[in-house]
Amino acid sequence: MHHERPIGPATGETHGAKSPGDDVARRGNGPGERSRRTTFQRRIPATDTTEDDECVCLGPKGLGTLKDEEKRARRLHPTVAFTPQRICLGVVKALYWARDEPSPRSERRHKGVDEKESGRWIDSYQDSCALQAQMPETLVVNVADREGDIYEWFAEYGSYAPGARAQWIVRATQDRRLRTGAAAKLWDALGQAPVLGTMTVEVKSRPKRAARLAEVAVRSAAVLLEPPARTGYRLPAVTVNAVLAREESPPPGAEALEWLLLTGLPVAAFEQAATVVDWY
């Protein structure tokens, strides 16, 4: 069971944020490549799932020794709105639920996306579309990490009227089959696309990884995805735009930075593709 929480107040928190220009330097290969300004406001709802598990000692309840514990899996899936300058505006919605006993993969394969936890990402996108309809002078872009790579999300985008649908950016995790083109798979198609330009991206420090600057080559393409098979219903073929940001020459011993991003935003020009990388 999950609980929905309404939109929260704008907090104005910056969380130590920098503007995109502080983190990224761009060099386009095409003539006249430069930053373009627009009067449109932009709002970027970011969504992800957080674990909030509770471990209960069973001893005092007479159910075991003091060392016996029961893990109660709980999940929080918030959608939080930011500006492109990383200023937090507030919570759009938060879903909170106790996780059921995990089902075998063979059973999950036959369930619809609305019956699985992956449906939370589509719920978040639908909330962003409702927000977009309320604010026609604002560009709303829902952003998700690799768990949001769900084909039904891409099909959902096409079901909305252009004036009522939010845009989206999702980091790809599946090397999906393509219906047309010289390449059969997604990663091959982007790898064969010409380099539009390069960006210098700040790589944050993590355990066993030092902070550094990475120069990534930016490629983009529009691709027609082959729909996956589903039990009980058929999905349409969907055209999406894709951006590949790949570090061609990482430092010795460092893992190359690579993001393959799917989106409904235009990406044909370098500045457009670089903006998608910025916002992700």
List the helices and strands and how they pair.
Layout: E1 2-5, H1 20-23, E2 24-28, E3 41-47, E4 50-51, E5 54-57, E6 69-72, E7 74-82, E8 88-98, H2 105-108, H3 119-134, E9 138-144, H4 151-158, E10 167-171, H5 186-192, E11 195-203, E12 212-225, E13 238-247, E14 258-263, H6 270-279
Parallel strand pairs: 3-9, 9-10
Antiparallel strand pairs: 1-8, 2-11, 3-7, 4-7, 5-6, 7-8, 10-14, 11-12, 12-13, 13-14
% residues in beta strands: 25-35%
Q: Helix amount, in percent?
A: 10-25%
Major beta sheet summary: 12 strands, mixed
Spatial gap, N to C terminus: 31 Å
Task: Describe this entry's structure for a reader.
This protein has 280 residues and is of the alpha+beta class. The protein is built from six helices and 14 strands. The protein has helices at residues 20-23, 105-108, 119-134, 151-158, 186-192, 270-279; strands at 2-5, 24-28, 41-47, 50-51, 54-57, 69-72, 74-82, 88-98, 138-144, 167-171, 195-203, 212-225, 238-247, 258-263. The strands form two sheets. Strands 1, 2, 3, 4, 7, 8, 9, 10, 11, 12, 13 and 14 form a twelve-stranded mixed beta sheet that branches. A two-stranded antiparallel sheet has the order 5-6. A hairpin with a 5-residue loop joins strand 7 and strand 8. It is globular, with a radius of gyration of 21 Å.
